[in-house]
Each structure stands twice: as structure tokens, then as C-alpha cells.
């Protein structure tokens, strides 16, 4: 059992807090019984489980660890103190994992999958992204296409906000140019959200297969992106604010699309 | 101009980061041109403006400060460094304010105001609360009733998530017992959200006047709260997750209520 916070293996896991390190290794860190269970159930490529026997009280979780051990998944046992040094939770549960990132490509984005795909342009807030993954899971979306300079879906804050749904949604990363080129031959319909759009989001019949395109928190969609869309829809607003939170706006639109099926 | 971070006036403002201090003084701190502008426009009781002339570039904001000076609002000028010690932003804009909290009472909750009222039971996340205030503003809700042990709406994180809508929504704080007693004679209809509810949220005709009751992030509504509701509605979920983010669920329901008007 590792008892030193300064052990190189522990330092390496802790380094996964940095996006640069996650990108260099293709790995990420998840913690908590719920998230690790979701990873196992989704058959995510777990490289290593991290277990603190002092902290891990749940029989369910102990059985899960045993099961993984029998499937030859490497298990790193650490002291409660070392575990706490890896954790960003107040009351760490004693179970975490290092998981290999899984990226799909645009070629994997096909018309016969789920309610729709969600494309996000330059989303910057990890909490918003995690919340959108959670809503995407709830409506049965296929996955999220991250366009341009987006926050990292493997950021721990995204994982927390996704409440274990990170593994249920496929993830694709592309530049706008790559997306735009692929889109022409994809067979998909692209519908974007814009405050200025004349179509009320409830009066529009969402075509299939569909990619719902949402702009960034600050800038929305630019003129070129709006031009690429078959249709732009707007969500009415009656108050002082000039926009909704991005995850709320995406949720309102996804539930309208779901209601039309 | 104050140039010391240790000046007692500055320390007192900084102490408003603590909920205890906010509750003891009845004051709170807002920052940023947008938030201060919203406070002025909403005629919120501003006790003091805090201005860092080194940082405040915007002519619009400088005019706003001048206008407030003419209306005898106390103005505290501070150095950029002192301002940064008060700010929780990376690039502080040099404008902030200390504002008196405004609480309405249950007696102020009347049937003729806005789309509906939103009652939140034991909401714990300031970001969720701020996002719900922002959505409440967008749909034209009257305000938010905070039931039981809720996060503080005057927490800076709530203010940030509310995007300046903190002043457009009335705020009421009550225990469940107080609310429950008042409710009987209020003339309102109470509709709650629950995963287990048999009414699909789109098939239900929301009565007027309406209070939409949402449970806490972790626990939802308890049996007594559910029993108090005329109706319970559920939002369908198709995926792994067993719930939506609270602010997303509230947004989906509020936009359904708006669509029915």
C-alpha cells in the first residue's frame, strides 16, 4: 500500500488535473463510487483503479473492486491520506480510476444514432459541458461534437457535473473547418440556436437526422456558422437578461426535439 | 483614495464573502459593470460604490459612477491593487458595490405577479440558484421562494450565475412549516416535480396562479411536500442518469408553463 503523497505514481495521477498532462497521456482521472461504476458498466478502458481500503466502506464498491481485480485490472492501494491528496471531494469515498480517453471521429457520426447529436462551438465552462452531457444522456442523444477551442470534457469539473453520464455520450473534437467540410456529405440537418432567429423553437419541426448546434457562452454562433444551418431557432425571453445559461438553453431545445418524436 | 488592503473599510467589505457576515449586516457585494448597472436600473438600495479609477476604463461605467455621485451615493475610491483584493474575477473591471439585501415576505407573494413563483426546497448549489434566477427572469417569473436550508442568494457565485438578474426576481425565505401554513389561504396552486410522478410534464395543464415547487439536488421533494402539491409532474429520461441538473429541470418546466400561456 502506498502511503506517501510524493510517490512518483501518485504524482503522475495528480498531474492529470492539468489539461496538458491529460492531453499528453490520453488519460483522465475519475473518482467516486458512482463514476467508477458507470465507467465499468460502460466498459470504459480503465487503466488502473485507485482504492483506499481505510475509506472504502461500501460493500457494493468492494465487490466491484474484487470483480475488476479478477479481470486483471491493475489496482493501486493507497492510504486514506494519499487518496485525499488525489481527491477534490470533501468526503472522499476511497475509490477512483485512471481511464483512457475515448474520442470518436466525425466518420463515427452517423444518422442512425439516438435522438440527435449536439454540436457545441467553443464552450468554455466545464460545468456547462458536464450538464449538457447529463441532459444529452437523459434525452437519448448520441453524443457531443466539440467545435473549436472548447473546454476539456475530461476535466474533473465536467465529470462532476455530468453525474456519471460522461461514458454514455460519444465525444468528437473537430475544428469548424473540418466539421463544415464533413457536414456537406453527412446527410445530417443542422439547426442552430440564435437569439435573433425568427423561428420560435416550438413552432419549428426539427428534421431528422439532426445536429443541434449551440454557440459559446459569450459569443453564440458567428455569421458563418449561422449560414451553415438549415434553420435557426430562438427561445423567447421576457426579462432583463439577454440570454439563458447555455446548459439550460440546450436542455429546453433537446426536450422540444424529444417531444416532437 | 484607499491604497491599503488592510484598511478596516476594505476588510469589512471583504468579510461579505462570508455568509455569516452577510446575514449579520444584511449587506452583500456585487462586482462588474453589468451587475452594478442592473442594480442601479432596478433601483436596488446601493450603500456604497467601490471604484478603482486605475481599472475603470469604460466611459459608460464612469458616467454611471458620476450619476450615482450626484444622487449622493457614497463612493469609495481604491487603488487597483486594493480592488483586486476584493474581487473574485481574473480581470476586475474596477466597479463594485455594497448593496442592501432585499427580502420579500410570504405576504408579498400574490396571485397577480408574473408567470408564476418558483419555490426551491433546500437548494444547495449557488450556481444552480443563480441559473434558476436567470431563467426565472427570462420567462417572466415573479420570484423565488427559498424553503428550508438553502444556499444564500447573495453568495457571489449566485450573483455570477444570475448574470445580473438577481435584482429582477423577488426573494422570499421561509421554513416549510411557514410556507405550508401560508399556502392554505394563499389561493395559489402548487405543482411539484418528481421523477416518480405519473403526469408527463407536457400533458398537464398548469393552473393559475401557480407556484412551481422543485426539490433539492440530492433528495428531491419529501413525501409531505409531494402530498401538499395539487399535481406532480415528471420529465421523461431515457438514459443512464436518474435525474437532470436542477437548473435544467426547472428551465424545461418553466418553458412548458410559458408555452401554455
From TrEMBL, chains A, B:
The protein's name: tRNA/rRNA methyltransferase (SpoU)
Span of domain RNA 2-O ribose methyltransferase substrate binding: 29-105
One GO CC term on file: cytoplasm
GO BP terms in the entry: methylation; RNA processing
Keyword field contains Plastid: no
Family: Belongs to the class IV-like SAM-binding methyltransferase superfamily. RNA methyltransferase TrmH family.
Molecular function in Gene Ontology: RNA binding; RNA methyltransferase activity
Keywords: Methyltransferase, Transferase
Taxonomic lineage of the native organism: Bacteria, Bacillati, Chloroflexota, Chloroflexia, Herpetosiphonales
Amino acid at each position: 500500500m502506498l502511503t506517501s503523497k510524493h510517490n512518483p505514481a501518485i504524482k503522475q495521477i495528480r498531474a492529470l488535473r492539468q489539461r496538458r498532462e491529460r492531453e499528453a497521456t490520453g488519460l483522465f482521472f475519475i473518482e467516486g463510487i458512482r463514476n467508477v461504476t458507470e465507467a465499468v458498466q460502460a466498459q470504459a478502458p480503465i487503466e488502473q483503479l485507485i482504492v483506499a481500503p481505510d475509506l472504502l466502506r461500501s460493500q457494493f464498491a468492494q465487490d466491484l473492486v474484487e470483480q475488476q481485480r479478477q479481470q486483471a485490472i491493475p489496482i493501486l492501494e493507497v492510504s486514506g491520506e494519499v487518496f485525499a491528496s488525489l481527491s477534490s471531494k470533501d468526503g472522499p469515498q476511497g475509490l477512483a480510476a485512471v481511464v483512457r480517453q475515448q474520442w470518436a471521429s466525425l466518420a463515427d457520426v452517423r444518422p442512425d444514432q439516438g435522438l440527435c447529436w449536439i454540436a457545441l462551438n467553443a464552450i468554455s465552462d466545464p460545468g456547462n459541458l458536464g450538464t449538457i452531457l447529463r441532459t444529452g444522456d437523459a434525452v437519448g442523444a448520441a453524443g457531443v461534437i466539440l467545435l473549436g477551442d472548447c473546454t476539456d470534457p475530461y476535466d474533473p469539473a465536467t465529470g462532476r457535473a455530468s453525474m456519471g453520464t460522461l461514458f454514455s455520450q460519444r465525444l468528437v473534437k473537430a475544428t469548424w473547418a473540418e466539421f463544415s467540410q464533413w457536414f456537406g456529405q453527412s446527410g445530417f440537418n443542422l439547426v442552430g440556436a440564435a437569439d435573433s432567429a425568427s423561428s420560435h423553437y416550438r413552432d419549428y419541426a426539427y428534421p431528422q437526422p439532426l445536429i443541434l448546434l449551440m454557440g459559446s457562452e459569450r459569443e453564440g454562433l458567428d455569421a458563418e456558422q449561422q449560414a451553415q444551418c438549415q434553420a435557426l431557432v430562438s427561445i423567447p425571453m421576457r426579462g432583463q437578461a439577454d440570454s439563458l445559461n447555455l446548459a439550460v438553453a440546450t436542455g429546453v431545445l433537446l426536450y422540444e426535439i424529444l417531444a416532437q418524436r
